[in-house]
Amino acid sequence: DGGITQSPKYLFRKEGQNVTLSCEQNLNHDAMYWYRQDPGQGLRLIYYSQIVNDFQKGDIAEGYSVSREKKESFPLTVTSAQKNPTAFYLCASMRQGASATEAFFGQGTRLTVV
Amino acid sequence: QQQVKQSPQSLIVQKGGISIINCAYENTAFDYFPWYQQFPGKGPALLIAIRPDVSEKKEGRFTISFNKSAKQFSLHIMDSQPGDSATYFCAASKVPSGSRLTFGEGTQLTVNP
After folding, report:
1. Which residues of B fall within a CB distance of 8 Å from A92?
2. Above 70 in pLDDT, residue B97?
3. Which of A42, A97, A103 lies nearest to residue B96, judging by beta carbons?
4. Given this model, what pLDDT does residue A40 score?
């Protein structure tokens, strides 16, 4: 089955702790994205990567870090510098054609600070 | 930030009614306008999309209307069903540059039986 796999589904973080969210894809897409979803605020872009070993900050990158060492993997680290990390995190890869751009999303990781 | 504004934030309709969600964009370079549907606890999935060379696109009960001069587009769900209850996001991008999708704030649709 082709798709985006995010893990874990639920994650609890203590104050001052870094946590890493996993995202793997087997769709052979070059581009991968991390979004944060909060009620009433839509999907806000954290980081994105158009190619291996390269990534760019999105609109709310502060307190987050990423790596893109393999085409299939795009992990997101939520650092202790992120003051309000409780949210639903979505990873996506994108099929970019001549006339359309389709995002394929994972099932999400719900992060809660305890 | 290139914005896409979406309204309403929430919408309640009766079974069999028409659901209408509106979006407005600012960047005239956008040339691809998809709608995504998200069920609770799941990731969004592409529902329907339109390019600005047409004013309307219909797929089953779902229709996108596009007004290029007003920089607005809308999703119409005909004969709304309880199974349509979900959060809907509009989005915009420019193809084929590979640029990011810019999403609206989302609309939580509830269809009462």
Report:
1. 43
2. no
3. A97
4. 75
pLDDT reported for residue A111:
95
pLDDT band for B108, please (50, 70, 90 cuts): very high
Residue A74 neighbours by CB distance under 10 Å:
28
Total Cβ atoms within 10 A of residue B15 = 13
Cβ–Cβ of A96/B43 closer than 8 Å?
no
- What the block records as the tokens of B34 is 């998809």
At B96, the pLDDT band (50, 70, 90 cuts) reads low
Those residues whose C-beta lies under 8 Å from the C-beta of residue A44, and which sit 6 or more positions away, are A35, A36, A37, A38, A58, A59, A60
Q: In A26-86, where do the E strands start and end?
A: 31-37, 43-51, 54-57, 64-66, 76-78
The encoded tokens of residue B94 equal 């420019």
Strands B107-112 and B10-14, bridge-based pairing = parallel
Strands (E), B1-113: 4-7, 10-14, 19-25, 33-38, 45-50, 56-59, 62-67, 72-77, 86-92, 102-103, 107-112
Query: pLDDT confidence of B95, banded at 50, 70, 90?
Result: confident
Per residue in A53-75, pLDDT (tens digit) is 999 999 999 999 999 999 999 99
CB contact (8 A) between residue A99 and residue B41: no
Q: Which of A101, A105, A107 is closest, CB to CB, to B95?
A: A101
DSSP secondary structure, B23-42, as one string: EEE--TT--BEEEEEE-TTS
